């Protein structure tokens, strides 16, 4: 069977690897490099992801893939400290003492928040799919916890759609991030960078005879004469890992329902100083053109990079604001007292379809792996609900490959 895979992100590459055992596989990737949101920059002395990534202790399919590619010994477990930027002040929130000292929640508020964190893994996410996250927090933890702690997080990540996001997403995110001790959250990272995973997949695919066409977007998709035509070339089957609305755009088939998606604009900065007081993940309560400051070198050892590496995370609907890169950089330098000469370099990565917005009722609109003879898998697939991850993308790739080979239907 001759198969075309549209999209060279993690799901597409994993599916290609599985299918290459029995089929001829062609991967089309619109960007000049593979990886999608897992693509990386190459600096003089190191690689760094365009968008920050880490994994979790339960990601067994990821671990199996790393072992298969000879990368298992590269996986390391690091501590991710957290904090909140409120009224111009950095508040560390990693250790129990730091949490108790946080002045913007009462002791009772903190106790309720702690109980929710402990209970999160045991809650029934299915029953929370139709419940708005804000409503759930206000009902269970009170208006003050929502306004002071959760609303700024939801606003920075989802903007005007924050009131539509389901409690299933929020509780899932709390649960997956509950593996923590007094030094911070326990998170996995690949020593040398996640580009090793993408490069390892590419090398393995090429060794199996797969065709990989980078810088080649799928601009047309048509089913005719029992074949699928992608860019006027015939295939027996097509797997699209792009959002369903993009499938509709290139095929002209408007029956593919548009899923709620958001874009991401992530600035990566190399500089000569730490500005977050040793904190890895600093959420912004104060209004800024970014919702979090993620200091990679307060997570992975700084001596691998010869400089501090910081991400500024921003999300948007539709298109990013004009002049966003300059606005982010100016605000960052002003807010954290960083002189212009301290910035070594900066890059802004923009992805208009960075991931689904898990609005209430999302579980009912998740696409099947096969619709109208076309195979679909990606960040919108069921293994990535209600919180997308590398693990979910790998599972989706494996499951859709099994479906293409004629395995059991979902």
UniProtKB/TrEMBL annotation:
Residue ranges of every copy of the Amine oxidase domain listed in the record: 10-404
Stored Pfam families: Amino_oxidase
GO molecular-function terms, A-Z: oxidoreductase activity
Alphabetical list of InterPro entries matching this protein: Amino_oxidase, FAD/NAD-bd_sf, Zeta_carotene_desat/Oxidored
Protein name: NAD(P)/FAD-dependent oxidoreductase
Organism: Methanofollis formosanus
